Amino acid sequence: MRDEHIISILESAPPALLGESELEAIRAHTVHCSECRRAYEAAQISALLLRERALETIEPSPFFQTRVMAALRERQASNETPALGRLWKATGALVSSMAATVAALAVLTIFAPVSQPSAGTQEEIASAFNSYSAEEVLFDQNELPEDQMSYEQVLTTIYEAGEDR
After folding, report:
1. Distances (CA, A) of 138 to 92, 135, 143, 151, 164
2. 68: Cβ–Cβ under 8 A, 6 or more apart, which residues?
3. Whole-number Å distance between alpha carbons of 112 and 106
4. pLDDT score at 69
5. Treating both helix axes as pointing N-terminal to C-terminal, what angle do 34-55 and 20-30 enclose, rounded to 10 degrees?
6. Do 14 and 47 contact (CB within 8 A), yes or no?
7. Residue 31, CB half-sphere, CA atoms under 13 Å: how many?
8. Is the dihedral of CA 36, 42, 46, 49 positive or negative?
9. Residue 95: pLDDT over 80
10. Which candidate among 44, 64, 112, 120 keeps its CA 20 to 30 Å from the CA of 57?
11. pTM of this structure
12. Residue 2: what pLDDT?
């Protein structure tokens, strides 16, 4: 144990709670190591100081309770706003901005000029706004790029791989 210091033993528990084997190891080591002896003595002194300090009782000053209760009553008197008022104070800006946004969107929806589409069939009107129709995108499996698999090819590959296991 001469090569290893006892600092880890001292840090693990106060000297009063150490076991007999640990105390014997400490005593054997501190005979040859002055640094560990100083650490052991410091641990004993600090444990003694802490024990004595814990035994002291500190009395509060006279009228301590009276002053604390007066300060508490004063704070409660200043915060006697109703719950709705406190809620509005906390969220007023958010609610106001949301109401302004809704009002602006309502005004734009009602009073915005609507452009009339030119006369033509429903398909011509749809193709004027969108170059793809839903049917073309969903059902046209023949025009897939070469590196992209169709939905059916993916499912076939998955289920064939599952049967091999």
Report:
1. 47, 5, 11, 11, 31
2. none
3. 10
4. 93
5. 130
6. yes
7. 7
8. positive
9. yes
10. 44
11. 0.36
12. 44
Q: In this predicted model, what pLDDT tens digit does every residue of 22-69 receive, in sequence order?
A: 888 888 988 989 898 999 999 999 999 998 988 888 888 889 999 999
What mean pLDDT comes out for the span 119-124? 62
- The CA–CA distances, whole Å, from 139 to 40, 52, 125, 128, 142 equal 84, 86, 21, 21, 9
DSSP notation for 49-108: HHHHHHH---PPPTTHHHHHHHHHHHHHHHT---HHHHHHHHHHHHHHHHHHHHHHHHHH
**Amino acid code (one letter) for 59:** E
Q: What is the mean pLDDT of residues 67-90?
A: 82
Determine the residue type at 20: E
Cα separation of 118 and 125, whole Å?
8
CA 78 vs. chain centroid, Å, equals 33
Token duo for residue 111: 């009073």
Q: What is the reported pLDDT for 165? A: 53
CB atoms within 10 A of CB 39: 19
